[in-house]
Specification:
Helix 22 links the parallel strand 1 and strand 2. By secondary structure, the protein is an alpha/beta fold. The protein has a 5-stranded parallel β-sheet with strand order 3-2-1-4-5, with helices on both faces. The radius of gyration is 32 Å and the shape is elongated. About 60% of the residues lie in helices and about 5% in strands.
């Protein structure tokens, strides 16, 4: 058998890692109610800006345009119903999660699935940044003195949400279930109370603010309605999150996820339609500096404690809506890692069923976006909707093919609904891309193919490793080779004795090597070591490696290379003995020569690196080498 062709610790990256826990703990998975709190915050919070996005577009056509608010909202609600029905079927057909990525991978091909994955990744990352900045913006609107500190506030909120999610998705659901319930309850109360009013209870919130309604426009064209529809579809972001995170639910996971998806769609639809009805009922007009939702709260509940409760709940939910991404993206990243499109560490789970590497990566990228945007919502919003519409369109198209292949009962109607949804979301994606292109949407259109190329590069790297490792093939019968263990030493100690003991147990032949530099101090130390070695006489040869450079890694790696050159059939192991300190801070006292030596041998040779950690026990207790 020939020597290893690659380092042992790198070979582990060729195949998918083993699960960290063979049997998931159901306590750390979501119920349907907890799933609604953990995965719906993005969608729920969108009622704060979805109706406003519609009104702002229609306002350019004056009062006539505002009269189309309810019809446009009903069209969006119809699309929401289609999406909920579709994703309910996606959950049943793809219970391992992944949403649009899983659907596209099964029915539209590898490249399309990567586009879907890239769109979801962008959507989730931007959702974190937009949600945090929107929540902080609402806070600074109430307390203007905090405006200059908005970036620090954004990073603080991001750190809070990240810390909660590192403890597990169930813990995050428990923390956020109260804000979610308060927000939904306050919005539904606002709608019910408003429906019983014939006139606004108060207009104080909008008093003194300039209207943004156009004066000269009197006609409403199809293009304006399409643009309003596309802008209002920002309220649909987050609908896909449940389908992406099905494995996070308790058994039966698919059924619980379906219930969560339906509940999310029902609540979101009721709130969107209810708010739009009130906009028409109170003849509300958008004004500068005051949100549409604030005006509705003022009109329905009056300018009292109810108004401030709605505002406070909105601030909290907008800031915490980032939690949807922390529930969905790490699961998606684990699926991409399973398929060799991302590093395998994203597939690993810690305790409490947490994909911690995915959580940390999401927080890091979102933090970078917050830093470069300065915590400004308007810088990020134009980038937000494109990714989710691309994912919606791909998922709907894939489900049409799924029904044509499956041909179960009612497949034609289901395929028709999915086809209609694909057309609507596809048109929305084109309209948003065109209208927001100069406002920053171009960067998303560049980022999508860049991410796809990145996925392909990672996949190619893993494929190359698998090919060289002959993964999946039946290996040849094991053969015994001559083995040589090399032990670098610099002096005699208990550590040296443990290293030699381990080495003679591992190999047929053992050689100790010491690096000698060409100065008098090193030569004197080498003579002392030689004298002590001969006095100890462990039965192991001591080889002196002379060098003119002040380095230890290169002489040892050159010696190993020489062994391979003259004895090509030898399996060489370099055993590096190191003291394992009792305290973490004591690592600072070590000279790190073992790490330097290991890097040099790993870089220049194919030798096996064995690092022996020798733990010094407290006085009166025996030491052990793990």
């Amino acid at each position: 058998m020939t020597a290893l062709s690659m380092p042992a610790d790198s070979a582990d990256t060729a195949g998918p890692p083993e699960p960290s826990r063979p049997v998931p703990d159901e306590r750390h998975r979501l119920t349907a109610v907890q799933g609604l709190a953990a995965l719906s915050l993005d969608a729920m919070a969108s009622v704060a800006y979805g109706p406003e996005a519609i009104v702002l577009v229609l306002a350019t056509a004056g009062g006539v345009g505002l009269g189309y608010t309810l019809p446009v909202t009903l069209a969006i609600a119809a699309l929401l119903a289609v999406l909920v029905a579709s994703y309910r079927q996606v959950i049943a057909a793809f219970p391992d999660g992944g949403g649009a990525y899983a659907v596209a991978r099964a029915h539209l091909g590898r490249r399309t699935s990567l586009v879907a994955a890239a769109s979801l990744v962008l959507d989730y990352v931007l959702n974190v940044a937009v949600s945090v900045t929107a929540g902080v913006a609402a806070l600074t609107s109430a307390f203007p003195a905090l405006y200059d500190d908005r970036l620090l506030l954004c990073l603080a909120v991001l750190l809070l949400v990240t810390g909660v999610n590192l403890r597990g998705i169930v813990d995050s659901a428990r923390v956020f279930i109260v804000p979610t319930a308060v927000f939904v309850g306050s919005i539904l109360t606002l709608i019910v109370v408003g429906l019983f009013r014939s006139a606004p209870a108060s207009t104080e919130a909008a008093a003194g603010h300039a209207s943004v309604v156009g004066d000269s426009a009197t006609t409403v064209g199809a293009l304006l309605l399409v643009k309003a529809f596309a802008s209002g579809c920002s309220a649909l972001t987050g609908v896909e999150a449940v389908a992406n995170a099905v494995p996070s639910f308790r058994t039966p996971a698919a059924r619980r996820a379906q219930r969560t998806e339906v509940a999310l769609g029902a609540l979101l639809g009721m709130m969107l339609i209810g708010l739009s009805v009130l906009i028409g009922r109170f003849h509300l007009q958008p004004v500068e500096g005051v949100t549409v939702l604030a005006q509705l709260a003022d009109a329905s509940l009056g300018h009292g404690w109810g108004f401030y409760l709605v505002q406070f709940a909105t601030v909290v939910l907008l800031a915490l809506a980032a939690n949807t991404s922390f529930g969905g993206l790490p699961v998606l990243m684990s699926l991409l890692a399973r398929d060799n499109y991302l590093p395998h560490l994203f597939q690993l789970k810690a305790d409490r069923e947490v994909h911690r590497h995915g959580v940390v990566a999401l927080a890091a990228v979102a933090g970078v976006l917050l830093f470069f945007s300065g915590g400004d919502t308007n810088t990020l919003v134009p980038l937000f909707a494109i990714g989710v519409f691309v994912g919606f369109t791909i998922c709907q198209t894939g489900m049409v093919i799924h029904w044509r292949t499956d041909r179960s009962a009612g497949w034609r109607l289901k395929a028709l609904l999915n086809g209609l949804g694909a057309v609507l979301t596809g048109v929305s994606a084109l309209v948003v891309s065109a209208t927001k292109f100069t406002e920053g949407a171009w960067s998303v259109l560049i980022a999508l193919p860049v991410l796809v190329v990145l996925f392909e590069c990672v996949h190619g790297a893993y494929g190359s490793l698998d090919e060289r490792m002959e993964l999946g093939r039946v290996p040849a019968a094991p053969q015994r080779s001559r083995s040589l263990v090399i032990v670098p030493v610099s002096h005699l100690s208990r550590l040296t004795r443990e290293a030699v003991n381990a080495a003679v147990s591992l190999g047929d032949e053992v050689r100790a090597v010491t690096v000698v530099h060409q100065d008098e101090d090193d030569r004197a130390a080498a003579r002392t070591l030689r004298r002590d070695w001969e006095r100890w006489n462990p039965g192991v040869e001591l080889v002196e490696l002379a060098t003119r450079r002040r380095t230890i890694g290169r002489p040892v790696s050159e010696y190993v290379s020489k062994i391979y050159r003259y004895h090509p059939g030898t399996r060489v192991t370099v055993l590096i003995a190191e003291v394992e300190p009792d305290r973490l801070w004591q690592r600072l006292l070590q000279n790190q020569r073992g790490a330097v030596l290991a890097r040099a041998v790993r870089r220049d040779t194919a030798a096996v690196i064995c690092r022996l950690r020798f733990r010094l026990a407290a006085p009166g207790r025996a030491a052990k080498a793990p």
